[in-house]
Specification:
single chain, Rossmann fold, alpha/beta, 3 domains, 4-stranded parallel β-sheet, 10 strands, 388 residues
Length: 388
């Protein structure tokens, strides 16, 4: 099918959740009946989650400054991508998602529209602006997640846990090189460190990021402090003897010779899109035991859609106020537990139900959720999303 014909008219639409067939229906849906509900919400704003679509809604927000591999293409050009994200929310988690492509201050826009939505999915916002936007929205009262950062980190951690098992390694055995210090690379590094990975080196286009390196931004100095790196080195130099490479950078920065200098049976996550840091076949020829990419036409796709639908399903159902590191870890472990190999099938509804359950229970245990879900929650979610 022609891609333009597929997208004609967009990929999402608004539908009714209640019938409007009679005058009585009309009086309930709009005036005068709706006034009673509005008065109740006026005195108890939290009831908006129960009596409006807010309790099952997420805004997918971007300024179009870092869209896929396309760069700063602007809000209008970002809209097809945001629509696609909204379609995946509905398909995999039965969440009503609305795209908001913003020209102007993203953080202030989100604050202004937050009373309408149950959660905010930030998307395709360039670094370092994305870090500042997220910081400003920490206490907006509903869960906010920049998926390019945290969704990526969750799925990388899930895949890495399984890759370590498959190669007979533990978290303590892992020696990791993260290539790329943008939004995704920063979030991956932070989540791995939070989980307990200790031997991590982060590289950018100038090589290893180390404490006190001339020209370090605040984020890069934070990464250096987090990893404990104190010495310079090229990517090739720091890879020698390591057993994990995670690329969130640029095409073809790695070659077979580099892989051969790593520990035997290394794990290669080459996640640059659309072209990975190394061709998967080349990585396997060089001795890689596990190879993952960001592409759907290769095995082991590190796809954020394994994480964000379930994360927001669980967050909405538990009335979670924020997405914590503990919640991200719970989501990653849930994804990992469902996979038979490195990464589970995205069309397996158990993935999204497992993530939702892990998120909802962890949020409540951590004291950031208002609702404790039922003992049958996994089955309830599985039944709900299997209908989609």
């Amino acid at each position: 099918m022609d891609v333009f014909e597929y997208h004609r008219g967009g990929k999402i639409r608004i539908g009714l959740s209640k019938p409007i067939r009679t005058r009585e229906d009309l009086s309930l849906a709009y005036t005068p009946g709706v006034a009673e509900v509005s008065k109740r919400i006026g005195s108890e704003p939290e009831l908006s989650f129960r009596y409006t679509f807010r309790g099952n809604s997420v805004a997918v927000v971007t300024d179009g400054s870092a869209v896929l591999g396309l760069g700063n293409i602007g809000p209008e050009a970002a809209l097809p991508v945001m629509e696609g994200k909204c379609a995946l929310f509905k398909k995999f988690a039965d969440i009503d998602a609305v795209p908001l492509c913003v020209r102007g201050d993203v953080a202030e826009t989100v604050k202004a529209v937050a009373p309408t939505f149950g959660g905010i999915n930030l998307e395709d916002i360039s670094a370092p602006l994305c870090f500042e936007v997220e910081r400003k929205l920490e206490n907006v009262g509903i869960p906010v997640m920049h998926d390019d950062q945290h969704g990526t980190a969750v799925v990388v951690l899930a895949g890495l846990l399984n890759a370590l098992k498959l190669t007979g390694r533990s978290v303590e055995d892992a020696s990791v090189v993260v290539n790329g210090a943008g939004a995704a690379g920063t979030a991956v590094t932070k989540l791995l460190a939070y989980y307990g990975f200790r031997d991590i080196t982060v590289c950018d286009t100038r090589g290893a990021i180390y404490s006190g390196r001339e020209g370090n931004t605040g984020i890069k100095e934070e990464l250096a402090s987090l990893t404990g790196r104190t010495e310079p080195g090229t990517l090739e130099e720091v890879l020698e003897g390591k057993n994990v490479f995670i690329g969130l950078s640029a095409p073809n920065v790695l070659n077979e010779s580099d892989v051969r200098t790593m520990e035997k049976d290394p794990i290669i996550f080459a996640l640059a899109n659309p072209d990975p840091e190394i061709d998967p076949e080349a990585a396997l020829r060089a001795g890689a035991a596990v190879v993952a990419t960001g592409r759907s036409d290769y095995p082991n796709q590190i796809n954020n859609a394994l994480a964000f639908p379930g994360i927001f399903r669980g967050a909405l159902d538990s009335r979670c106020a924020k997405i914590t590191d503990g919640i991200k870890v719970a989501a990653a472990e849930a994804i990992s537990s469902v996979a038979e190999g490195v990464i589970p099938d995205i069309f397996d509804p158990r993935v999204h139900a497992s993530v939702a359950e892990a998120v909802a229970r962890t949020a409540y245990e951590e004291g950031v959720a208002a609702v404790r879900v039922s003992e049958n929650y996994f089955r309830e979610v599985l039944k709900r999303i299997s209908r989609e």
